[in-house]
Amino acid sequence: MKRYTVMKTPLGEMTLQANDDGVTGAWFEVNTTLPEHLGERDDHFALLVETIKQLDEYYLGIRNQFDLPLAATGTPFQMQIWQALTTIPFGETWSYQDLANAIGNPRAVRAVGLANGKNPISVIVPCHRVIGKNGKLTGYAGGVTRKAALLKLEQGY
Phi and psi dihedrals of 16, rounded to 5? Predict the structure, then answer.
């Protein structure tokens, strides 16, 4: 059964979702990938409480990696991309080409971009660390302004 809660962050509210296997979603209030059905609201579900704690520590500058079980669902290719996103070092950025290279499929840049855009676990699975090949910020489901703020936050550690 999926459960969810809502937390306040310096960048706006985030909806967090989890089940017994792990975190299944983390979305800012304006997000293009927020699902219609979140499950049951449960502000006391242990995994959601821990997720809030770790996100609070991240925003306060005292955590640079997350230690949470993840249970997002997607196609095998999406799952491969989302796993690769977790290997991008804190405070660094990769291009979509770098991400395609990391999975051993340098020609899959467009598919990588589409899978990256479908990442349901914002911040924790750091899709915000992927930028255009020219170094410019590209789309982000939570908004490019938030993407810039997250990158700035990470560079300020």
Answer: -115, 140
